[in-house]
Amino acid sequence: MSAYIHTSISNGTGLIVLDRPKALNSLSLEMVRALTQTLHAWRDDASVAAVLVRSSAEKAFCAGGDIRFFHDMGRSTPQGGSALIEDFFTEEYSLNHLVHFYPKPYIALMDGVVMGGGMGIAQGGVRIVTDKTKMAMPEVNIGLFPDVGGSYFLSRAPGALGYYLGVTGTTINAADALHAGLADHYAPLADRAALEAVLTATPGAQLRDAIAAYAAAHDAGASALAAERSAIDHHFSAGSVPAIMASLRADSGDFARRTLELLATRSPLMMSVTHELIKRGAALDVAGCLRMERNVVRRNFENGEILEGVRALVIDKDNQPRWNPATLEAVTPAMVERFFEPVWPDYAHPLRHL
Fold first, then answer.
1. In total, how many domains does the chain have?
2. Active site residue 117
3. Which residues constitute the signal peptide according to the record (predicted)?
4. Is 354 domain-assigned?
5. Candidates 112, 117, 125, 281; catalytic one
């Protein structure tokens, strides 16, 4: 088990507390294994009727995977081929699949930052957001792509919201998450004592319904995404990243200007890979999306774009990534297609059993 994962059972609810606050609960391989082992043990435990996953602090539910680990392991071996990296993504994606198909109510209280890997351990369950929720799939900012099932849940967001959130990596709040179909319930911090009473006093078998009844009395307010939906759907349904950019450049509005400024900081190659990933994900089930992502993440470490992104953002902190290619115009269809070429035959795929 992990020192950063605490578990207990009370009143029919299995409680999992993420407790790595200095790293914003970023997931290590050890944490992924502890979560998986716990969920497997509780799946057949008659004393557990529901599972609640939360953080020990309101600052972050889970900020993603441990990207320092990715950088260190990727840099230590040719073409980023560390066995520990391979294990991490295979086991993390298996955990994501387990969450999506867990036979008991699985509830995630997404206080604070919830990004990347944090989305992966939340999106398959009942999702509660709060005033402090800062949600994103920001992988294009570090030369990665929206994984952990992102190709599944982003491709099923209304309109072109999935393309917008994936290609820009922008951060949204509780109201936006509800509008995008990435959250189920809103819990205001001002009424937190009432929520805590529901979570602790309700028998596990009744917990999901009790949360829904509690949340029905609360409104997250206006969504900025909803206000910008017309522009988002217009630009991000253009069919490709170059077409999206051309559409934005033809628009003199504030949304287009801000979005172009944001896209200028992202990896041109991984924006293009992300767009293709979401397009393909719309035709796949959860397992198919995770198998596709497992293939793409292997290609990503071979390419090295993530190593440069993490270097610039986290290691050297110069915020000057040297993307390769440096411009969107230099990204070719063959470069994008390379990420989707099978790494393994079907019978040897590490997620073939999902």
1. 1
2. yes
3. none
4. no
5. 117
